[in-house]
Specification:
By secondary structure, the chain is of the alpha/beta class. The chain has one domain (about 5-214): Rossmann fold, CATH 3.40.50. The chain contains seven helices and nine strands, in the order ααββαβαβαββαβββα. Strands 5-4-3-6-7-8-9 form a seven-stranded mixed sheet. α1 (about 10-15) runs antiparallel to α2 (about 25-30). It is globular, with a radius of gyration of 16 Å. About 45% of the residues are buried.
Length: about 210
Amino acid sequence: MEDASCLSEATKLAMRLAPAIDDVRVLAAIASIPRERFVEPSLRDRAYANVALPIACEQTISQPLVVARMLELLELAPTDRVLDVGTGSGYHAALLALLGGEVYTIERHRELARVAERTITELGIDNVHFAIGDGWQGLPESAPFQAINVAAATGPAPPPPLVAQLASGARLVAPVGRASQYLTLIRRTDGGLTQATLEGVRFVPLIRDDDDAG
């Protein structure tokens, strides 16, 4: 058995998540990405704790177990075209880039997008495309997508514009709800849409441009 002292912190994190995550590709991706690169310098000693941590613009980098679970639910194939709503730190987008094909990530805070893009570029990941805008609306000009990851709570239902951007056979994972939030998996099938409500989670809200206007 390999000496645990020789393992990277990312590999140790993947090993701790393994009892709850069946997808070995997801675990391999987590073992490959240095999470401390996506965390504020003052919090890097907690980068591999299984907790959400604050980042700039009153946002968070999500709990590693929840990130892994969302990735697992998306069932990504290496050629999948993926939309990531809420770039945040960029950690989720980096993992999606290892698991899928082309990744399009949208963030309303320009500062966050700029830092995330720099971090992902420095890691040598070159299949992530960054956009500034209203994540509620998605990226219709780049649709359809085989998978959509939403890293903010959508309120009572996933945004209809995002659902409309799903290709046939595609999956969307989002935290749905307000006071009580649940991971929700939507699939587009030949017969229409299916929806499954899963475990409880806690995310910052997905802000719409309309919310600012109101």
